[in-house]
TrEMBL record:
<feature type="domain" description="Alanine racemase N-terminal">
    <location>
        <begin position="9"/>
        <end position="227"/>
    </location>
</feature>
<dbReference type="InterPro" id="IPR011078">
    <property type="entry name" value="PyrdxlP_homeostasis"/>
</dbReference>
<dbReference type="Pfam" id="PF01168">
    <property type="entry name" value="Ala_racemase_N"/>
</dbReference>
<dbReference type="GO" id="GO:0030170">
    <property type="term" value="F:pyridoxal phosphate binding"/>
</dbReference>
<protein>
    <recommendedName>
        <fullName>Pyridoxal phosphate homeostasis protein</fullName>
    </recommendedName>
</protein>
<comment type="similarity">
    <text>Belongs to the pyridoxal phosphate-binding protein YggS/PROSC family.</text>
</comment>
<dbReference type="InterPro" id="IPR029066">
    <property type="entry name" value="PLP-binding_barrel"/>
</dbReference>
<feature type="modified residue" description="N6-(pyridoxal phosphate)lysine">
    <location>
        <position position="36"/>
    </location>
</feature>
<comment type="function">
    <text>Pyridoxal 5'-phosphate (PLP)-binding protein, which is involved in PLP homeostasis.</text>
</comment>
<dbReference type="InterPro" id="IPR001608">
    <property type="entry name" value="Ala_racemase_N"/>
</dbReference>
<keyword id="KW-0663">Pyridoxal phosphate</keyword>
């Protein structure tokens, strides 16, 4: 077993244990392996160990990896980084998910540039739950209007919400922003939107996220180790 496979198995065990502890249905939390800045060989190792969903932050780096892996790969590609207008043309046809939609303009470009022959692009709205000036994401108060606008766009399927909260000390403090995101999702569901995804939780706080209803945790370091080469845009 490769080191990547061993790390992957350990993270999966953490997720299953958290599901059991917090009375979540077994298998209800998906693992997204964040492979940004990692070489293609690491992705191949993870795929050989059964991992299929991979998250990337940098468009050109991701496209290079996709080309290296070839068209026959069964990988599911998730774009999770900040998305600029000039990058949507590359993201729309080459990814299965975008987790970081925070503006209607970006959503409209993704919708217009998604090829007709592909299924709708799954999208999440990134919410700045901690109110940090340095963080991307739409303010919670603005989420309902943006959600309605995005849900109406063709070629997109609005799936839910994503957040990257400020680091917090202690389990209860970690849970608080995840609880806020879950409650926001529930309010959108009550308004009639059919949403099923809470993309929240990373290496250091995935148990707190699972406790508050995460359906997808994004883990990089605990699977692939620390960043080991410069990122590209």
């Amino acid at each position: 077993m490769t080191e990547t496979a061993e790390r992957l198995a350990a993270v999966q065990a953490r997720i299953r244990a958290a599901e059991a502890q917090y009375r979540r249905a077994a298998g209800s939390v998906t693992l997204l392996a964040v492979s940004k800045t990692k070489p293609v060989e690491a992705i191949r190792d993870a795929m050989a160990a059964g991992q299929s969903a991979f998250g990337e932050n940098y468009v050109q780096e991701a496209r290079d990896k996709q080309d290296a892996l070839g068209a026959d790969t069964t990988a599911e590609w998730h774009f999770i980084g900040p998305l600029q207008s000039n990058k949507t043309k590359l993201v729309a046809p080459h990814f299965d998910w975008v987790h970081s939609v925070e503006r209607e303009k970006i959503a409209r470009r993704l919708s217009e540039q998604r090829p007709d022959g592909l299924p709708p692009l799954n999208v999440c709205l990134q919410v700045n739950v901690s109110g940090e000036d340095s963080k991307s994401g739409v303010a919670p108060d603005h989420v309902p209007a943006l959600a309605d606008a995005v849900a109406a766009l063709p070629r997109l399927r609005l799936r839910g919400l994503m957040c990257i909260p400020a680091p917090a000390e202690g389990f209860d403090a970690q849970r608080a922003p995840f609880r806020a995101l879950r409650e926001l999702l529930e309010s959108l569901q009550r308004s009639g939107l059919e949403l099923d995804t809470l993309s929240m939780g990373m290496s250091g706080d995935l148990e707190a996220a699972v406790a508050e209803g995460s359906t997808m945790v994004r883990v990089g370091t605990d699977i692939f180790g620390p960043r080991d080469y410069p990122a590209t845009t």
